[in-house]
């Protein structure tokens, strides 16, 4: 059992540990962009970083881009303010800027921007912390239906297939009267074994990739025959 003095020493030890832990907090990222990050062609990409620097150790923040297997510094922010770096690739001159604490803005995104971008925080007197993100230029959704026909005979088998492509890859769904019937990544199908007249109607194929939602409607018709009923009337001769 601890004596009173030992207990006091133990509490003092815990306080000292807590103090050293708080003093030891260093430069860290508190927010990073989604990886990968998708942006539409022609839009401005905002890659949002944020950080904690409790002891004001950051001397500079620099942003670089991967070109031909090598990261090239584009722009940086230090005690002299924001400046373009001498090694900035020509295609990024005038297209990049820094907003807020550490947000990199890339103007007028194009397919050449399908690459990696890096944020580096340089500490004083030495050391650095970095974070890298893959930027992907989104591609419009393209859809293709394969129906195997539009008209079916009751009792036959039928398959409705729908495929979609794009960046990011879409999820495809078949929907009827607001009810999800089938779904899958980049493709979905509906199979009817022994199709019934109640299966006739409008079906919607929808593709969704978080950047865009598009859909195509199709209608299937089920032919069926009515049973022939013979009614015989007897007459007395």
TrEMBL record:
Superkingdom of the source species: Eukaryota
Protein name (database record): Ig-like domain-containing protein
Signal peptide positions on this chain: 1-24
Ig-like domain residues: 125-221
Origin species: Pocillopora meandrina
Keywords for the protein's UniProt record, in alphabetical order: Disulfide bond, Immunoglobulin domain, Signal
Ligase in keyword set: no
SUPFAM superfamilies xref list: Immunoglobulin (SSF48726)
InterPro entries given in the database record: Ig-like_dom, Ig-like_dom_sf, Ig-like_fold, Ig_sub, Ig_sub2
